[in-house]
Design goal:
Distance between the termini of chain C: 60 Å
Strand order of the largest sheet of chain C: 3-5-1-12-9-10-11
Number of helices of chain A: 5
Low-confidence stretches of chain C: none
CATH topology of the largest domain in chain C: Aldehyde Oxidoreductase, domain 4
Number of domains of chain A: 2
Largest interface: A-C, 58 and 65 residues
Structural class of chain C: alpha+beta
Number of domains of chain C: 3
Protein name (chain B): Carbon monoxide dehydrogenase medium chain
Radius of gyration of chain C: 27 Å
Structural class of chain A: alpha+beta
CATH class of the largest domain in chain C: Alpha Beta
Strand order of the largest sheet of chain A: 2-1-5-3-4
Strand content of chain A: 5-15%
Chains: A alpha+beta, B alpha+beta, C alpha+beta
CATH architecture of the largest domain in chain A: Roll
CATH class of the largest domain in chain A: Alpha Beta
Mean pLDDT of chain C: 97
Number of helices of chain C: 19
CATH superfamily of the largest domain in chain A: Beta-grasp domain
CATH topology of the largest domain in chain A: Ubiquitin-like (UB roll)
Shape of chain A: globular
Helix content of chain A: 25-40%
EC number (chain B): 1.2.7.4
GO molecular function, one term (chain B): anaerobic carbon-monoxide dehydrogenase activity
Shape of chain C: globular
Helix content of chain C: 25-40%
Oligomer: heterotrimer
Pfam family, one (chain B): FAD_binding_5
Largest sheet of chain C: 7 strands, mixed
Order of helices and strands of chain A: EEHEEEHHHH
Radius of gyration of chain A: 16 Å
CATH superfamily of the largest domain in chain C: Aldehyde oxidase/xanthine dehydrogenase, molybdopterin binding domain
Number of strands of chain A: 5
Keywords (chain B): FAD, Flavoprotein, Oxidoreductase
Chain lengths: ~160, ~260, ~800
C-alpha cells in the first residue's frame, strides 16, 4: 500500500492507504479525525469539505493517494491556538448556525473559503456559495446570519424576538 | 469501490504511455468518476492521474482564441477566462465551489454527460478539442450520450475556443443535481450564430440548427418566434417532460440572445 | 429570571464540540477488533426468493459470517406499535416483518442477506458473490389498484393489500354525510401529499457488541429513543433480556422521525456480534438511506368542505389512502389515523367532521412518521380546500378563516374531531401576521413584480397541531401498545452541581442547553452547573424519547416535577439545618430561609449535608439528593400558528421563487427563544422542500427513481428566503407545569399549504384557470398547469 505524507492541520502526518482510499476515509479511519463527516455518496452534501492546499474540496471525492505532499486542513485544526473558537466558529454558535452538528464541519470549512475569496459577501452570495453544503436542520438562516456576522456585517440579533 | 492501479505521471508523454495499458482510464478531477466508482458502477483497472500535470493546466488568450489546458479546473476558468466572459460564467456555475476546485474541463468533456454544461460551451463555440494525438472539431467530437470521438487511451490535453463577438449561456437547473435540466449556449461570430443545447436530449449535446438559421438572418429574440425543437428526441424524467424541455430550449435560447445584445 | 433561566436565549453549550469536530456520532466509534457488515438488498420490488446461496460469499477473503432470512425464522419480527381497528370492527392486518426477508422480498432495498467481514470492502465484495435466485413478480405500487385487489399481493398470507379501513369518528359519519348533502355550498379537492425521504444528514449506523464473559450486549446506534429501541429488540425481535442489553445513542445527526424506529440492521449487528464475539459495524450509504429508511407522508386524499353561503363551515369529509409501504414500521399505523384524523377540524368551529383512512401495503419502502407525522397531511388538506372554497365564494382567505376560528373565550374547546384544545388565540396570531407580513402592502408588491414580468401570489395559512404526545390512558384506549410518558432523574451531586438524566434524546434540539435552563430557573443556580445525560439506557430512566415535538412538554415536565421533588427534600434538610419545621422554610434564588427571618442556608450547603449526613435526621430523611419523576401528560398540547408567504412565478418557465415566508406561532411558554427560532426555521425549510422540491417517486415496477441526491431535491440555502419567525403571541399550555406546547414540527406543518396557496394565487391573479397543483410545485408542473 502506498504510504503518503500530508501536512494535516500544521503537522506532518504519514499513513498507508490503498489506491482506492478516499481522503475522507483516510482522515476518519487512519488518522481518527472524525470531524469530517460522510453524508452522501454522490458528492453533494458537503459534510466532508476540507481544504487541500488552501482550497475547499469534498474529501469524499478525492483519493488520498493523490495527495502525497499536500497540505490538508480539517475542522479539527480551525480553532484558535488557545483552543477557543475562531471567528467563524464563534459566529456559528452566536447565531445558532447549527443544530445536530453533522453538516457543521463542512459548513465551517466552506464558509472559511468563502470569506477568503470574498471577505464581505452579500446574503445572496452566501446562499449561492453554499450550494454544495446541505443542512437538514437549520433552514440555513442561522448559517447565513453567522457568515454575515463573521465577516463583520450587521445581522439581526437572534435574541431580539 | 474496486481497487485499481494508480499512475501519477509527471508529463503528458508518461501519461500517454500509461494510458496504453488495458483498462486504463484518465483521472481528471474525479468529481463524476469517484461517485460512479463508489457505487461500483465503474471498475477501471488503472487510473492515470492527469490533474496537476502543469503542462495541462492554464488559461491563455491570444489572437482571438482562448486556450484552456485539459486539467484546468472549473474554478480556474471562472477566475481567469476574462477574455471569454460567457465561458467564464459557465464554468463558474458548474456544480458548487468545492466541485469547481477539483473538476476539470477535460474530465467534463471526456465524460460527455448529457446534462453537463461544458459540452454546450464547447459545441456552441465551435471549439477545437486537442488531444495527445490530434485535434478534433467540436462538431465531430460529441457523438452520443456519454460517447465522444476519443479513442482508447486518448487524452484531452486542451480545448481551443475561438472567442465570439457575443455569447451567453443560460442554464435552467435540475433542482436536485444542479446539472442543467436544459442549458443553451449561444455564440455569435460575425454573421454566424451557433446554438448548442445540453440537458435536453437523449443523444447528449446538440446544435439547434433551425434557431441558428433564423438567428443568422436576424440576430434577435424575435427571430425565434414560432421555432421549437422536436420534443420527440428529448429526455422525459421526473423533473420534466420532453415537452417541457422543448419549451425551455426556446425560452433559454431567447434569453441567451437577449443577453448577447 | 436568573441569567440562563426560562426565557433566556442562551447559546448552546453543545456547539463547542460540534464546531471543533469533536462530536461523537455512531460511525465515529470503531471499537477494537471491529468487523464490518454489508447487506444484500433486493433489486426487485416484489419477488419470490427461490434460493439464496451464500457458499461462494462465505469463501471470499476476509468473510467472517453470513446470514440469510433462514437464520431468523425462529426469532420475532419488528412490531407495529399501535393497533388500529377497522370500521367493521376487524383488527388491522399485521404481517410479520422479519430481520431479513424470507420467502419473499417486498421492496427494492429489502435486505435478504448479510455478510460480515474483516473490512467493509471485503464485505461488499462478498455481497456481490451471493447467488440469489429471486423470481420477479408484478409489483404493487399504485394504491387504488392495490386496494381494488385485482393484481399482486404484498403479503400473500393476509389475502389483501388493505391494512385497515378506519373511520373517525365513525359515529359522526351519517351526520356528516347528511350535512354535506344539505349544504348550500360544497368545495371538493383531490390532492396528493407527496412521499418524502427524511434525509437526516447523518445516515443510519449501528455497532453491535457482545461480551461473552458477562453475556452483555451493547448497541451503539442512531436512535431518537434508545429505551424504546431496547424494548423492541428485547421484547419482540431478538429476545435479549433488557437488563443484558445497553442501547447507546450518542450524538445523532438529525432524525426527523426516521430514527425513531427499530430497524433490522440493528438486530443483525447484535446477532452477528454474538455469533462472532466481535464488534460488528454497519453504516448506511446515502443510497441505502433512500432505499431502506422509513419514508414519510404519501397520502392520496379527497376532501370536501361544506359551507353556508356566507362561508360558515358546516362539515369536512375526508377520504384518504395512506401508503404504509411493504411492512408496518413501528408507528406507521398511528400516523395516518390518530395523528391525522383527529386534527381534521383544524382551528375551526365546524360541527361535523368525518375522516376515512385506508392504509395500503405496497411494494415500496415502509412509510412512517416524518416531521409533523399526520398533522402536515391534515393541515395541507384543510388549508388547501379552505383556500379553494374562499375563491369559489369570492371571499378573502383571511376573512374566511377568521369567520370560522375558535375564539379565545371558547377554551377549553371540544373539536368535532374528538380533541379538547386547551388554549389558543388564533385571531391574535392572524392580527400579528397581517402586521408582520404587511399583507396590506401585497398589492403594491404584486404590481412591482408584474413590471418585471413575474406573477406574484400571496398564500395564507392557519394551523393547529397536537403534540407533546401523549396521555397514556387515552392512547391506550386508542390502540397504542406503549405508554407515552417520559422520565427524568435529577441528581444533585455532593458539591452542589447537578446531573439530569433524561429519557428524551437530543439530536439537534438543544436539550443540553434548554433543560438546564428549567432546573437553573427553579433552583436559582447557574445553568452551567447543570448537565444533561441522555442517550444511554444504562444511565437514564425509562423514557420514551424524542419525537412529536414532545421533549420539552413531556420530558421537560418530568425534569420540572423531579426538580420540585428535589426542592421538597432539600427544604426538609434545610429545615433540619436551620432547626425549624419545613413549613416555615421558604426557597428563593437558591437560598432556604426561615420565613420572616434572615436565618438561611444556601442550596450548596444543603446538597453537601445530604451526602455527608454526620448531623442529619437519618430516621426521618434518607441521605442523598436525587429524585426521579415520570410525567404522563393530561392532554396533548396544541401549538397553533398563522403563516404567510409571497411567491413569484416566472410565467415562461414555471419556476417559483419564494419572496417571503413569515411564521407566527403560539408555542406557549418558550424556554430558549433562540433554539425555538431555529426549530421553526428548520421546519419551514423542510415544509418548503415538500412544497417545491422533494418527491420520492417509484415507477410502476417499483424502482425508486429518486434514489439519490442527484434526483431527490433537498432544499439548499439559495432555494430559501429569509425565514421570519415570531413566537410572541403565546397562550400558556394549561396542563403541563412549564406551560410549553412544543415547536419542533410546526414549520413543516404550516408551510406547505402556505406555499401552494401562494402559487395558486399567483396563477389565478395572472389569469390562469388553475385551482390546484400537487406538490412538489416544480417548474414543470407549474408550466403544465399554465398550459393545460
Amino acid at each position: 500500500m502506498p504510504k503518503i505524507t500530508m501536512n494535516i492541520n500544521g503537522r506532518e502526518t504519514s499513513t498507508e492507504v490503498e489506491n482506492r482510499t478516499l481522503l475522507s476515509t483516510a482522515l476518519r479511519e487512519n488518522l481518527y479525525l472524525t470531524g469530517t463527516h460522510i453524508g452522501c455518496d454522490t458528492s453533494q452534501c458537503g459534510a466532508c469539505v476540507v481544504h487541500v492546499n488552501g482550497k475547499a474540496v469534498k474529501s469524499c471525492s478525492v483519493f488520498a493517494a493523490e495527495l502525497d505532499g499536500a497540505t490538508v486542513d480539517t475542522i479539527e485544526g480551525q480553532a484558535n491556538a488557545d483552543g477557543s473558537l475562531n471567528v467563524i466558529q464563534q459566529a456559528f454558535q452566536d447565531h445558532h448556525g447549527l443544530q445536530c452538528g453533522f453538516c457543521t464541519p463542512g459548513m465551517v470549512m466552506s464558509a472559511a473559503e468563502l470569506l477568503k475569496v470574498n471577505p464581505k459577501p452579500s446574503e445572496a452570495e452566501i446562499r449561492d456559495y453554499l450550494e454544495g453544503n446541505i443542512c437538514r436542520c437549520t433552514g440555513y438562516q442561522g448559517i447565513v446570519n453567522a457568515i454575515m456576522a463573521a465577516s463583520g456585517q450587521d445581522v439581526p440579533s437572534i435574541a431580539a424576538e | 469501490m474496486y481497487d485499481f492501479d494508480l499512475v501519477i505521471p509527471t508529463s503528458v508523454d508518461e501519461a500517454s504511455t500509461a494510458m496504453k495499458a488495458d483498462g486504463a482510464q484518465a483521472l481528471g478531477g474525479g468529481q463524476t468518476l469517484l461517485p460512479t466508482m463508489k457505487q461500483r458502477l465503474a471498475a477501471p483497472e488503472t487510473l492515470v492521474k492527469l490533474s496537476g500535470l502543469s503542462e495541462l493546466v492554464g488559461v491563455n488568450a491570444a489572437s482571438g482564441t482562448l486556450s484552456i489546458g485539459g486539467a484546468t479546473t472549473h474554478g480556474q476558468v471562472a477566475d481567469e477566462a476574462s477574455a471569454y466572459p460567457a465561458l467564464a460564467a459557465l464554468a463558474g456555475n458548474i456544480g458548487d465551489p468545492a466541485v469547481r476546485n477539483r473538476g476539470t474541463i477535460g474530465g467534463s468533456i471526456a465524460n460527455n454527460d448529457p446534462a453537463a454544461c461544458y459540452p454546450a460551451g464547447v459545441l456552441g463555440s465551435g471549439a477545437t478539442v486537442v488531444t495527445n494525438t490530434r485535434e478534433i472539431s467540436a462538431d465531430d467530437y460529441f457523438v452520443d450520450l456519454f460517447e465522444t470521438a476519443l479513442e482508447e487511451g486518448e487524452i484531452v490535453t486542451g480545448v481551443n475556443f475561438p472567442i465570439p463577438d457575443a455569447a451567453n449561456y443560460q442554464k435552467f437547473d435540475q433542482p436536485a443535481s444542479r446539472f442543467a435540466l436544459v442549458g443553451v449556449f449561444v455564440a455569435k461570430f460575425g454573421d454566424t450564430v451557433r446554438v448548442a443545447v445540453t440537458g435536453a436530449s437523449n443523444g447528449g449535446v446538440f446544435r439547434w440548427s433551425e434557431a441558428e438559421a433564423a438567428l443568422n438572418a436576424n440576430f434577435s429574440a424575435d427571430a425565434l418566434e414560432g421555432l421549437a425543437v422536436d420534443a420527440g428526441d428529448l429526455i422525459s424524467d421526473l423533473h420534466g417532460s420532453a415537452e417541457y424541455r422543448a419549451h425551455l430550449v426556446g425560452v433559454l435560447t431567447r434569453r441567451a440572445v437577449q443577453a448577447c445584445s | 429570571m436568573p441569567d440562563g433561566g426560562i426565557g433566556a436565549p442562551t447559546k448552546r453549550r453543545e456547539d463547542t464540540r460540534f464546531l471543533t469536530g469533536r462530536g461523537k456520532y455512531t460511525d465515529d466509534f470503531t471499537p477494537q477488533n471491529t468487523s464490518y457488515c454489508a447487506f444484500a438488498r433486493s433489486q426487485v420490488a416484489n419477488g419470490k426468493i427461490n434460493s439464496v446461496d451464500m457458499s461462494a460469499a462465505a469463501e471470499m477473503p476476509g468473510v467472517l459470517a453470513t446470514f440469510t432470512g433462514e437464520d431468523f425464522v425462529e426469532v420475532g419480527g419488528n412490531p407495529a406499535g399501535w393497533a388500529i381497528v377497522s370500521r367493521d370492527g376487524e383488527p388491522m392486518k399485521e404481517p410479520k416483518r422479519p430481520v431479513l426477508a424470507h420467502g419473499k422480498v417486498r421492496h427494492v432495498g429489502d435486505a435478504y442477506a448479510a455478510v460480515v467481514a474483516e473490512t467493509l470492502e471485503q464485505a461488499l465484495d462478498a455481497v456481490e458473490a451471493i447467488e440469489a435466485d429471486i423470481e420477479e413478480l408484478d409489483a404493487v405500487i399504485d394504491m387504488a389498484s392495490a386496494v381494488a385487489g385485482s393484481g399482486s399481493l404484498v403479503h400473500d398470507e393476509i389475502e389483501t393489500n388493505t391494512c385497515f379501513d378506519w373511520g373517525w369518528i365513525e359515529d359522526n359519519r351519517a351526520a356528516t354525510d347528511e350535512a354535506i348533502k344539505a349544504a348550500p355550498h360544497v368545495t371538493t379537492l383531490e390532492l396528493v401529499n407527496n412521499r418524502l425521504v427524511p434525509n437526516a444528514l447523518e445516515p443510519r449506523a449501528s455497532i453491535g457488541e457482545y461480551d461473552p464473559g458477562t453475556g452483555d450486549y451493547k448497541l451503539t446506534t442512531t436512535s431518537q429513543n434508545p429505551h424504546l429501541s431496547r424494548l423492541l429488540i428485547a421484547a419482540f425481535v431478538l429476545g435479549i433480556p433488557e437488563n443484558k442489553l445497553t442501547v447507546l445513542a450518542p450524538d445523532v445527526g438529525g432524525g426527523f422521525g426516521s430514527k425513531i424506529y427499530h430497524y433490522s440492521e440493528e438486530a443483525l449487528v447484535l446477532a452477528a456480534a454474538k455469533k462472532l464475539g466481535r464488534p460488528v459495524k454497519w453504516t448506511a450509504t446515502r443510497t441505502e438511506s433512500f432505499l431502506a429508511d422509513a419514508h414519510g407522508r404519501d397520502h392520496v386524499t379527497k376532501i370536501e368542505l361544506a359551507t353556508e353561503k356566507d362561508g360558515t363551515f358546516i362539515a369536512f369529509r375526508t377520504e384518504t389512502m395512506a401508503n404504509v409501504g411493504a411492512y408496518l414500521s413501528n408507528f406507521a399505523t398511528v400516523t395516518p389515523t390518530f395523528l391525522h384524523g383527529t386534527l381534521m377540524a383544524g382551528n375551526y368551529t365546524v360541527p361535523n367532521v368525518y375522516v376515512n383512512v385506508k392504509a395500503v401495503f405496497t411494494n415500496t419502502a415502509p412509510v412512517d412518521a416524518y416531521r409533523g407525522a399526520g398533522r402536515p397531511e391534515a393541515t395541507y388538506s384543510l388549508e388547501r380546500v379552505i383556500d379553494k372554497c374562499a375563491r369559489e365564494l369570492g371571499m378573502d382567505p383571511v376573512e374566511i378563516r377568521r369567520k370560522n376560528f375558535i375564539k379565545k373565550d371558547q377554551y377549553p374547546y371540544a373539536s368535532a374531531a374528538g380533541l379538547e384544545y386547551d388554549s389558543g388565540d388564533y385571531d391574535a396570531l392572524m392580527d400579528g401576521l397581517e402586521k408582520t407580513a404587511d399583507l396590506a402592502g401585497f398589492e403594491a408588491r404584486r404590481a412591482e413584480s408584474a413590471k418585471n414580468g413575474k406573477l406574484r401570489g400571496l398564500g395564507i395559512n392557519a394551523y393547529i397541531e397536537a403534540c407533546g404526545i401523549a396521555p397514556s390512558n387515552l392512547v391506550g384506549i386508542l390502540g397504542a401498545r406503549v405508554g407515552l410518558y417520559d422520565a427524568a432523574t435529577v441528581r444533585v451531586n455532593p458539591t452542589g452541581n447537578i446531573s439530569v438524566m433524561v429519557g428524551a434524546h437530543s439530536h439537534g434540539q438543544g436539550h443540553e442547553t434548554a433543560f438546564p435552563q428549567i432546573v437553573a430557573d427553579m433552583l436559582g443556580v447557574d445553568a452551567l452547573s447543570v448537565d444533561i445525560v441522555h442517550g444511554d439506557t444504562s444511565k437514564i430512566p425509562f423514557g420514551m424519547g424524542t419525537y412529536g415535538s414532545r421533549s420539552l412538554a413531556v420530558c421537560g415536565s418530568a425534569v420540572f416535577r423531579a426538580t420540585e421533588k428535589i426542592i421538597v427534600k432539600a427544604t426538609a434538610i434545610a429545615a433540619h439545618m436551620l432547626e425549624d419545621k419545613p413549613e416555615n422554610i421558604e426557597f428563593n434564588d437558591g437560598v432556604f430561609s426561615i420565613k420572616g427571618t434572615n436565618k438561611n442556608v444556601g442550596f450548596g450547603d444543603v446538597a453537601l449535608k445530604a451526602y455527608i449526613p454526620h448531623d442529619y435526621p437519618i430516621e426521618e430523611l434518607e441521605p442523598g439528593l436525587e429524585e426521579t419523576a415520570f410525567y404522563d401528560p393530561a392532554n396533548f398540547t396544541y401549538p397553533s400558528g398563522a403563516y404567510a408567504s409571497e411567491v413569484e412565478v416566472d410565467p415562461e418557465t414555471g419556476k417559483v421563487t419564494i419572496c417571503s415566508m413569515v411564521a407566527l406561532d403560539d408555542f406557549g411558554v418558550v424556554v430558549n427563544p433562540m433554539i425555538v427560532t431555529g426549530q421553526v426555521q428548520g421546519g419551514l425549510a423542510q415544509g418548503i422542500g415538500q412544497a417545491l422540491l422533494e418527491n420520492s417517486v417509484y415507477d410502476k415496477n417499483g424502482q425508486l427513481l429518486s434514489g439519490s441526491l442527484m434526483d431527490y431535491a433537498m432544499p439548499r440555502a439559495d432555494d430559501l428566503p429569509n425565514l421570519v419567525v415570531d413566537h410572541s403571541h403565546a397562550t400558556r399550555c394549561t396542563h403541563n407545569p412549564i406551560g410549553s406546547k412544543g415547536c419542533g414540527e410546526a414549520g413543516a406543518i404550516g408551510s406547505p399549504p402556505t406555499i401552494v396557496n401562494a402559487v395558486v394565487d399567483a396563477l389565478v391573479r395572472g389569469g390562469h384557470d388553475v385551482d390546484h397543483i400537487d406538490m412538489p410545485v416544480s417548474p414543470s408542473r407549474v408550466w403544465a398547469a399554465m398550459n393545460k
